[in-house]
Amino acid sequence: xxxxxxxxxxxxxxxxxxxxxxxxxxxxxxxxxxxxxxxxxxxxxxxxxxxxxxxxxxxxxxxxxxxxxxxxxxxxxxxxxxxxxxxxxxxxxxxxxxxxxxxxxxxxxxxxxxxxxxxxxxxxxxxxxxxxxxxxxxxxxxxxxxxxxxxxxxxxxxxxxxxxxxxxxxxxxxxxxxxxxxxxxxxxxxxxxxxxxxxxxxxxxxxxxxxxxxxxxxxxxxxxxxxxxxxxxxxxxxxxxxxxxxxxxxxxxxxxxxxxxxxxxxxxxxxxxxxxxxxxxxxxxxxxxxxxxxxxxxxxxxxxxxxxxxxxxxxxxxxxxxxxxxxxxxxxxxxxxxxxxxxxxxxxxxxxxxxxxxxxxxxxxxxxxxxxxxxxxxxxxxxxxxxxxxxxxxxxxxxxxxxxxxxxxxxxxxxxxxxxxxxxxxxxxxxxxxxxxxxxxxxxxxxxxxxxxxxxxxxxxxxxxxxxxxxxxxxxxxxxxxxxxxxxxxxxxxxxxxxxxxxxxxxxxxxxxxxxxxxxxxxxxxxxxxxxxxxxxxxxxxxxxxxxxxxxxxxxxxxxxxxxxxxxxxxxxxxxxxxxxxxxxxxxxxxxxxxxxxxxxxxxxxxxxxxxxxxxxxxxxxxxxxxxxxxxxxxxxxxxxxxxxxxxxxxxxxxxxxxxxxxxxxxxxxxxxxxxxxxxxxxxxxxxxxxxxxxxxxxxxxxxxxxxxxxxxxxxxxxxxxxxxxxxxxxxxxxxxxxxxxxxxxxxxxxxxxxxxxxxxxxxxxxxxxxxxxxxxxxxxxxxxx
Amino acid sequence: xxxxxxxxxxxxxxxxxxxxxxxxxxxxxxxxxxxxxxxxxxxxxxxxxxxxxxxxxxxxxxxxxxxxxxxxxxxxxxxxxxxxxxxxxxxxxxxxxxxxxxxxxxxxxxxxxxxxxxxxxxxxxxxxxxxxxxxxxxxxxxxxxxxxxxxxxxxx
Lengths: 786, 156
Ligand code: FES
Ligand code: FES
Known about the structure:
Number of domains of chain B: 2
Largest sheet of chain B: 5 strands, mixed
CATH class of the largest domain in chain A: Alpha Beta
Mean pLDDT of chain A: 95
Strand order of the largest sheet of chain B: 2-1-5-3-4
CATH topology of the largest domain in chain A: Aldehyde Oxidoreductase, domain 4
Oligomer: heterodimer
CATH superfamily of the largest domain in chain B: Beta-grasp domain
Order of helices and strands of chain B: EEHEEEHHHH
Radius of gyration of chain B: 16 Å
Number of helices of chain A: 19
Low-confidence stretches of chain B: none
Bound molecules: FE2/S2 (inorganic) cluster
CATH architecture of the largest domain in chain A: 2-Layer Sandwich
Helix content of chain B: 25-40%
Mean pLDDT of chain B: 94
Distance between the termini of chain A: 47 Å
Shape of chain B: elongated
CATH superfamily of the largest domain in chain A: Aldehyde oxidase/xanthine dehydrogenase, molybdopterin binding domain
Radius of gyration of chain A: 27 Å
CATH class of the largest domain in chain B: Alpha Beta
CATH architecture of the largest domain in chain B: Roll
Number of strands of chain B: 5
Distance between the termini of chain B: 49 Å
Shape of chain A: globular
CATH topology of the largest domain in chain B: Ubiquitin-like (UB roll)
Helix content of chain A: 25-40%
Largest interface: A-B, 56 and 55 residues
Largest sheet of chain A: 8 strands, mixed
Number of helices of chain B: 5
Structural class of chain B: alpha+beta
C-alpha cells in the first residue's frame, strides 16, 4: 500500500502531453503509418453465415496487377482463443459467420489488393445456420463447432458442451429452501439486450514487417502481449519471435482487447519481405465488430416483506457469436455484476456463452456489467413495487456494506454504496428537479446502483533514473485516449521520486522492452501498471537514498525527495540534487534503475461455490447514477433532462481527466440505451454497416453530466486509486431503463429503447418477452445437472 | 488527368483518377494525415478541410472537381507553434481523448466562430452535429468553445 504522503506530492490535473499533436493533426496512429515501401492487404470474407468451402483457388488472383502474396488458412494453421482454442484466423473447410476472413492478399496498392480478391475462385455450399441463441439451444440444434470436444482447453474448469462454449456457475447456500419459505414474495423478471458496436475512430489496424528473422507488428491494440501470443500460436513460431509495438491508439473501448487481423499482416510480411498494412474499412469494422454481446436474462428472487433477499437465482445467456472469444471469460463477470449491489441470502447464478453463426462478440467498456446492471436494477424496482416499498428506500436498506458477503462469499470491506446513495441525494438536491422541463411530456426519474471490479492481473514496470535527473518509465501500457499513460502514470512516478511529472518520460508499448502485461482495459491501467511503477520507484528510491545518505552523512529515514532534490528532513536547502546523487551512483556502481511488478492481490471467496470462473473474488468499484428524462408520448422519443453520477474513484489523481471519462462514458451509455441498435438479418449479417444507420450520439444528444467523486473507499491501487474509465457507462442503461419505466408506468425489459419501442410500450403493443429456451427450473439451464 | 489546386498555400498538380476522394489524396499522396478518414460517408466530420474558406467533408469531394480551388487542411491552420485559439482552448481545458476527431472539430469551429463570434451553447452544439466524437461526450468540447467565446466578448 502506498505511503499517503507521496500522494500529497502528486501534481493534480497534470495536462496531457499528447494534446498539442492531437489537435494539430500531427499524431501518427497505426492507420497513418505509410510510405512507398508498405504493401496493402485486403481480406476475402464470407458472405454466408454457415457454409462449407467447396473450392478456394487463389491462383488466378496471383496474376492480378500488383499482387505480392496471398495467405489462406493453411498459412495460419494454429487455433487460439480465450479459455478454449476454438478460433481460426482464416477459415478452413467451413465458414461460421458472415464476414469471416478466408484469404488475405497483399499488393502494391489497396485498390489492387481489393481487385485481386475478386479473382479468387471461391465456392461456398450453404449449411444450416443458428442465428439466435434460441436456435442454438433448440433440441437437435446445428452445432456451430461439431468438433468442440477436440479443441485445446487453455483454462481449466469451464463446463462446455455442444453450442455452450462455456458455462460458469455460482451456488452459495440453499436456494430451494429460500424459495420454499412461507414468508417470501417471489418476483421474476425477463430481460434482453442487443449488441453495441464500439466504433473507435481508428479501426483495427496493423502494419507488420519481418526483420532479422522476427516478426515486428505495429498494432492498434489494447493488448500487445495477446497479439504476440496469438500471432505466435497461429503461425506456429516461438513467442519470442514476435515483437509488438503500439503507436498512439485512436480509441478502443474494449474492441481492441483481442487479436484480430495482426497475424495476417505478419504472415504476409514474411512472404513478401516487405512491410504489410491491414486496415479494416469502416464497413468491415462494423460488420465484424467484436461487439458488446446481446444477452437474455432471467432473474427470480425470494424477498421478505422487509425486502431481505433470502434467495436469488439467475440464468444469463450471452451470445458469443461463432467463436468463444471474450464471452468465455465474461461468463465469470455475471457473478460479480448481476450478483452484486445487494445483500443476498442463498444465491445461484448460471452464465453461459452460446455459440451462434453470427459475428463473434467481444469486450466493450464495463463488458457484461452494463446489461446485467440494467436487468438487476429493473428487477430491483419490481421487487420494491411488489413488496410496496419505496425504490430508494429499498436500495438504502439493502445495498452491500461493510463485512457483507458477495455472491461468491467474499467479505467486503467498508461501507461505500450507502454513503454514495446519500451523496447522490445531496447532488440531486443541489441541482434541483428538472421536472418543469418535461412540459406535457411523460416525466420519469430513477436512481440506480452498480457494482464493477478492478481487473488486476500481471503488470511489469522498469524505471530508469537518467543522468539529467529525469526518469524513463518502461511498461507495455497503451495510450488509447484515456490519458493514463499521459497523466496518471507520470504523476505516480513523479510523486514517488520527488521530480516533476514533466520530467517523466513514458515509453510507448514495446514487448521487447518491458515485461508482460495483461493489457489496457477494465480500468486496470492506473491500478496495475501504476502499482508496478510504484514498486519500481521503490527500488530506485532505495538506491538513490543509499548513496545520498552517505553523501549527506544522514540516515536514509531522515531524507526526503522533493522538487528534484534530496533534502534532510525539516531543513530545506540542506541537501543536494538528484542529478548529483545519480552522478555519484554512476561512479560507484553504475546507473540507477529499478523494476517492479504487480498481480492480482489475494482476495478470497468462499471455497467451493464457483465453477468455471476465471476470477472468484474482486476489488469492487461502485457507482450510483440518477437520471431525469422526458418522453414524447406520440413519438416515443426520450430527452435526458438531467444526469448525475456519484462514482467510487478511490482517490482522484486527475479530476479533470476523470470528468472526461465520466462525460464520455455516460454519453456512450445514452447511445446504448436509446439508439445504437444492431439487427442481424437472415443472411447472418448486421444491417447497420456504417455511420448512416448505426446511430452514434451527436453533440445535440448530450447534456453536461453532474458528478461527485467519492473518495476514500478501500483500494489496492497506488495512492488508493481505482480505475475510473470503465465504470462511467456501467449503470446508464439501468438508470434510463428505470426512468422510462417510472415515466410510463410500464415494464421495461429490453434495450435499446428506440422511439418505436417506447411508443409501442406506451400503447401496450410490445409482446411480453418469451425465452422458451430458458427453463423455469434453474438447474435445467446448467450442463452438469441435466 | 491532372488537377491543379492550392493546398495549404502551395500550388499542387495531382495526377490521379479524378474520382479519388480528396481525403485519400491528402493522406496517401501528400501524407497530410491530420485529415482523418473515419466514416467515408460524410457523417463524422473527421475529414473536414476548408475549400475556399468553407468547411467540407473531404471524403465526399472527388479531386477532379477541385480544379483551381483553395484547400486548407489542419496542417495549414497553425503557424509553427502558434495555435488557433480554439486549439489552445482544447489543450488548456484538457478535453482531448483519442484525438481522432479533433482536427475536424477545429476545421468546423474556426469558420463557425469567425461567422458567429458569440454563439449560444446550443448554437455551438448545432454547429457540431456533423462532427462526431466517440470518446468525450461533447460537453467539455463545448465548454472549451464557450471559454473562447467568453474571452472574445470580453476583449470586444
Ligand atoms: S470521413 Fe468524411 S465525413 Fe466521415
Ligand atoms: S476524442 Fe476520440 S473521437 Fe473524439
